[in-house]
Amino acid sequence: MRSYIITELERRIIARYLRTDRERDGNIDQLVKRYQESEERIKADLALLERLLQRYETAMARGKTRARLRAVGTTANRKL
What we know:
mainly alpha
C-alpha cells in the first residue's frame, strides 16, 4: 500500500495554483481530470481503510492482539 495519493511534485503544483491567482494550465487540467475519474475509487478505498482501522482498534481494546485464522474447505482438518 502506498502512503500517498498524489506525488510531491503534484502537491507543489496544486499549492502554487491555490496560492496564486493563476490561470489554469495543462498540469492543473490533467490533475483535475485524473481526480474526477478516480474520485469514487479513492473515497471507497478510504472508507474501507477507515472500517479496517475501526475494527482493528476495537479488537485491540478487547485484548485480541492477533488475528485468528479461519480454516475453510478441504484443509479444515489440517493444523494451521
